[in-house]
Amino acid sequence: MIIVCITGASGAILGIRLIEELLQCNKEVTCIVSQSAWQVMHYELQTDAKTIAAILKNRDVQNNLLENLKEYSPDDFFAPVASGSFPFDAAVVIPASMKTVAAIAHGYADNLIHRVCDIALKEKRTLIVVPRETPMSTIHLHNLYTIALNGTSVVMPLPAFYNFPKTIDDVINFVVGRVLDLLHIEHTLYKRWNNENNNR
What pLDDT is recorded for position 163? Predict the structure, then answer.
């Protein structure tokens, strides 16, 4: 089971696309969305949906796949995933606000998203963070360095220009694909680098 956390940074579509792909791969997904993320999502995705399932239905995700999706409020400390004894394979924060990165770096588990990341670190499980901020201050960089030192994989949401991206979807798919790579999940979201086929 994979936990996907969407926080209040720009780029909520990255989290939505990741959940779509995980469900298409028949993975069980638990989703936690911060209150700020809902505000950003309503604006950026031009939706008034109140659940991730509703957003995915509007994106033509099949109902049988949605059966593998669970959603919890960031205030729900009685959710199963709030306990280190509950097994999950990985947690992904996508996109990650600098507030969330700071909370992870300093063990400030004041909501369910931060708590899940705290559990991933202390239980030595996979934690992937996709930060969305630029430029970054030395405080941001120090916090990212701190979580990386403690085992977090930091995936910057940057495009690969050797793929000659033509649309925003191409950029999104590359970032999501790199996250799936770290989760060891096969996909065909982007064309991999092949120097033999590279025209110079």
Answer: 87
